[in-house]
């Protein structure tokens, strides 16, 4: 992509982000999905994620994009086989980390945003972290992408323990839960080149592409699959839909996060019929 085309694309996004929320979401949906959305009468799973973004303001969802609140929810659920990652530090002043006794390896994230992460070693370097996190307290998901629950999350940083050996992220299991019933598991293995694959709860593999990643080879089920499904069912019970993200770390089930807006409702399923099939599982609430 040339510098000019990147500039034009950036300028286009800037214009889209200034449009009314409904129009913005429709244009983004058309761009990513190559089809016309039906947010007014949603049928597909992707339509329903966008419907939720535009309409659903229930207290049930308002904390689900706050990482510390999610961890608190998971910890208080009293699930015997679920481990919640240890929070080493949290705060809004990154300079405070200079005085925190950090382990050999740790992870820094914003509490109120998605997709931003820094892998640290030893004591914090204030100058480096100030550069890395310069824009992390901005409100991109809530202000630009209109994902309401992010606006309710506390804008701050948190440092967690590193899961698994350095440089070897553990397998990530993203479980789509509808009314407390797990229906689809997305397994992501970032260590082998960012591939994913969808499975049913009985670990039957699905030949479905989701997003832009390549489809991964069929993997063996995690040893604790039944316990993972039970944990997802119990954490997802209060919601008409939620995605429960779990890790398998040396046979231990570790909480990742809850996700009310998977991929912002913008990533494609191929074949498209699977988007319809998944949408049929989601009974939207009466607001």
Short description:
With 287 residues, the chain is α+β, with helices and mostly antiparallel strands.
Could you list some keywords that capture this structure?
single chain, 287 residues, alpha+beta, 14 strands, 29% helix
Structural class by SSE content: alpha+beta
Cα-atom radius of gyration: 19 Å
What is the typical, i.e. mean, pLDDT?
92
General form = globular
Poorly predicted segments: 1-8
List SSEs in N-to-C order: HHHHEEEEHHHEEEEEEEHEEEH
Put simply, the count of helices is 9
Got a strand count? Answer: 14
- Helix content class: 25-40%
End-to-end separation: 44 Å
Major sheet characteristics? 8 strands, mixed
The percentage of residues in β strands lies in: 15-25%
Describe the structure.
This protein is an alpha+beta fold and 287 residues long. The chain has a domain of 76 residues. Helices cover 29% and strands 24% of the residues. The protein is built from 9 helices and 14 strands. The strands form 3 sheets. Strands 1, 6, 7, 8, 9, 11, 12 and 13 form an 8-stranded mixed beta sheet that branches. A hairpin with a 2-residue loop joins strand 12 and strand 13. The radius of gyration is 19 Å and the shape is globular. 31% of the residues are buried.
């Amino acid at each position: 992509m040339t510098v000019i085309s990147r500039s034009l694309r950036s300028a286009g996004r800037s214009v889209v982000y200034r449009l009314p929320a409904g129009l913005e979401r429709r244009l983004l949906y058309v761009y990513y999905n190559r089809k016309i959305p039906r947010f007014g009468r949603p049928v597909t799973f992707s339509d329903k994620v966008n419907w939720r973004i535009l309409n659903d303001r229930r207290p049930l969802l308002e904390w689900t994009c706050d990482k510390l609140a999610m961890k608190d929810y998971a910890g208080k659920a009293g699930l015997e086989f679920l481990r919640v990652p240890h929070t080493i530090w949290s705060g809004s002043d990154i300079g405070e980390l200079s005085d925190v006794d950090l382990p050999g390896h740790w992870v820094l994230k914003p509490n109120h945003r998605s997709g931003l992460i820094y892998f640290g070693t030893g004591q914090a370097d204030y100058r480096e972290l100030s550069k890395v996190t310069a824009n992390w307290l901005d409100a991109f998901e809530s202000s630009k992408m209109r994902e309401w629950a992010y606006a309710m999350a506390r804008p701050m940083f948190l440092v967690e323990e590193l899961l698994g050996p350095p440089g070897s992220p553990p397998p990530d299991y993203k479980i789509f839960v509808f009314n407390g019933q797990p229906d689809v598991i997305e397994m992501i293995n970032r260590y082998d080149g960012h591939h994913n694959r969808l499975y049913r709860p009985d670990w039957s593999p699905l030949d479905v592409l989701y997003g832009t990643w390549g489809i991964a080879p069929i993997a063996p089920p995690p040893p604790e699959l039944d316990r993972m499904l039970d944990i997802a069912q119990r954490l997802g019970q209060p919601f008409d839909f939620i995605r429960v993200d779990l890790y398998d770390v040396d046979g231990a089930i570790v909480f990742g996060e809850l996700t009310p807006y998977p991929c912002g409702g913008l990533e494609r399923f191929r074949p498209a019929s699977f988007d319809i099939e998944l949408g049929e599982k989601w009974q939207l609430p009466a607001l």
